[in-house]
Design a protein that fits this description.
About 35% of the residues lie in helices and about 20% in strands. With about 190 residues, the protein is an alpha/beta fold. Helix 1 crosses helix 3 (about 120-135).
């Protein structure tokens, strides 16, 4: 069995970390381990956009000391992320690489001027964790709108997709785990 390291980037609510860690580890068949939190990299801040550049944050996670042989790393942050070609991203991952990053900022109802809804936030966080982790296994966006790998441009689309992989995506993950139990070594980044 491989290992899933889970790490906060900045301050992240512990209960969210726990549920994302548990669900991702269960769905991917990995043993979870928590890493100490990492600071938000100051160089990622863009004062004009008032957001953090996602690739810089992801790179800081990749470069952080990892300890012994993690198979995959799930980083979770509260900061609002962007890439230059998009207004925002919910997360980013190294396609067929070990590291995925999820931002909770736009998953929160409060971001849209609505009252907090912890249940909605937990559901969205799990779906996005599974989505970004799927990219680390080389999965692209799934045409099945109920699959966690379905593309989501907004939270309504996250809300309508399922909180697990479809049968086809699950088979692909299992095949890739069997072919390379230690995980891929790629570094292409997937933006969403």
């Amino acid at each position: 069995m491989g290992r899933l390291d889970v790490v906060a980037v900045g301050d992240v609510e512990e209960s969210l970390m726990e549920i994302m860690e548990r669900r991702a580890a269960e769905s991917l068949g990995l043993e979870p381990r928590r890493r100490p939190a990492l600071p938000v990299p100051g160089g990622a801040w863009d004062p004009e956009r008032r957001q953090y550049e996602s690739s810089t944050v992801l790179r800081s996670v990749v470069q952080a000391p990892a300890g012994p042989d993690p198979t995959r790393v799930l980083a979770v942050t509260e900061i609002d992320l962007f890439i230059p070609m998009l207004t925002f991203v919910f997360g980013q991952a190294q396609l067929e690489g070990p590291v995925a990053l999820v931002s909770l900022a736009r998953l929160r109802q409060e971001f849209y001027g609505l009252p907090p809804d912890p249940a909605v936030l937990r559901a969205r966080a799990v779906k996005e964790a599974l989505h970004e982790m799927g990219h680390t296994f080389g999965l692209s966006h799934c045409p099945d709108g109920r699959c966690a790998m379905a593309l989501s441009h907004n939270v309504r689309q996250i809300d309508t997709k399922g909180s697990d992989y479809c049968d086809g995506c699950r088979v692909l993950i299992e095949e890739r785990r069997a072919a390379r139990p230690g995980g891929g070594a790629g570094s292409r980044e997937d933006f969403r």
